[in-house]
């Protein structure tokens, strides 16, 4: 595992600069800063319509200290496919130049990933296009007024689900894994070293890589900005957000989630949900049902890992 000192010494430079217009406690900013610390120079980022397009600021005083391309809502993965291919073509014609080491990165919200962008992302995954796609998941369309997305959890209040969302959250990391791409990972902004380590690994792998990060949004979640790290940490501790990697089809639980295979190690789900105003309309019955559903998810995961271990 990467140590904090090693991570900070390897890249003290900030690539997403202070003075951007992120809200206080924005999980997006934390996620992007640590992702770029791992990827470093020679990284070109593409972002579809999202909070990120807005908070970067206006040229010539924009916050990204790296190549940044604003892209249409549905086209980020398609654009990344073309950009990655262009770098490879340049390297073929002019070997040894800077583009030989370029990393193409997509950084998109859940709306531009699980909903509007999934067609382009699925196509790129099927082609195994060589880039990293990251979804910073704040679980709603936060930039346009906190509307529900397919990544919004069951029971969450948004401006379009005023009584709480009826449907359950789309499990996009597993959908991406079903495309048989070489690397899929989940992260949380509460675990920056985990983000750093997984982006480092993704950079070293050829082909399509997908990383899904739980990114807190204080105004959208109904939490105080000073709790923007503690609340995602509770998501991990309760097991409602599972940290794992799927590398060449093999699933491995990450350090903070592996002990939670033991139910006694998991904090009660209510510890996470009760701290957010967006879940304030959940009934006691619904809370019990959600806990039972989560426990069943972990039981199924334990069975999957057991079968995987005995199959190898």
Pattern of helices and strands: HHEHEHEHHEHEHEHHEEHH
| Secondary structure category | alpha/beta
CATH superfamily: Thiamin diphosphate (ThDP)-binding fold, Pyr/PP domains
> Unreliable stretches, pLDDT < 50, 5 or more residues?
none
- Based on the coordinates given, report the CATH architecture: 3-Layer(aba) Sandwich
Please list the strands of the largest sheet in the order they lie side by side.
2-1-3-4-6-5-7-8
Tell me how many strands there are. 8
**Broad shape:** globular
Defining traits:
312 residues, alpha/beta, Rossmann fold, 14% strand
Summarize the structure.
With 312 residues, the protein is α/β, with parallel strands linked by helices.
Describe this structure in words.
With 312 residues, the protein is α/β, with parallel strands linked by helices. The chain has one domain (4-311): Rossmann fold. The chain is built from 12 helices and 8 strands. Helix 2 (27-39) packs across helix 8. The longest helix is centred in the C-terminal third of the chain and has 28 residues, at 284-311. The chain is globular. It starts with a helix and ends with a helix. The mean pLDDT is 94.
């Amino acid at each position: 595992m990467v140590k904090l000192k090693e991570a900070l010494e390897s890249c003290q430079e900030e690539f997403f600069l202070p003075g951007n217009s992120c809200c206080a406690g924005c999980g997006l900013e934390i996620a992007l800063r640590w992702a770029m610390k791992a990827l470093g120079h020679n990284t070109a980022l593409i972002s579809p319509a999202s909070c990120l397009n807005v908070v970067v600021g206006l040229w010539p005083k924009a916050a990204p200290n790296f190549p940044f391309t604003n892209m249409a809502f549905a086209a980020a993965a398609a654009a990344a496919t073309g950009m990655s291919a262009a770098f490879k073509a340049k390297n073929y014609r002019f070997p040894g130049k800077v583009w030989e080491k370029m990393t193409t990165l997509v950084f998109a919200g859940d709306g531009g990933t699980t909903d509007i962008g999934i067609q382009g992302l699925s196509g790129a995954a099927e082609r195994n296009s060589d880039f990293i796609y990251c979804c910073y998941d704040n679980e709603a369309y936060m930039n346009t007024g906190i509307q529900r997305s397919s990544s919004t959890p069951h029971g969450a209040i948004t401006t379009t689900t005023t009584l709480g969302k009826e449907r359950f959250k789309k499990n996009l990391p597993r959908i991406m894994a079903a495309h048989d791409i070489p690397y899929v990972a989940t992260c949380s902004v509460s675990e920056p070293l985990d983000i750093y380590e997984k982006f480092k690994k993704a950079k070293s792998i050829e082909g399509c890589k997908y990383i899904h990060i739980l990114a807190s949004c204080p105004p959208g979640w109904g939490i105080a900005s000073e709790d923007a790290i503690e609340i995602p940490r509770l998501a991990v501790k309760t097991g409602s957000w599972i940290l794992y990697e799927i590398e060449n089809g093999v699933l491995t639980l990450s350090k903070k989630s592996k002990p939670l295979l033991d139910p006694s190690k998991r904090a009660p789900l209510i510890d996470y949900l009760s701290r957010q105003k967006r879940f304030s309309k959940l009934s006691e019955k619904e809370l019990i049902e959600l806990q039972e559903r989560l426990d069943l998810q972990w039981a199924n995961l334990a069975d999957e890992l057991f079968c995987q271990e005995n199959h190898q």
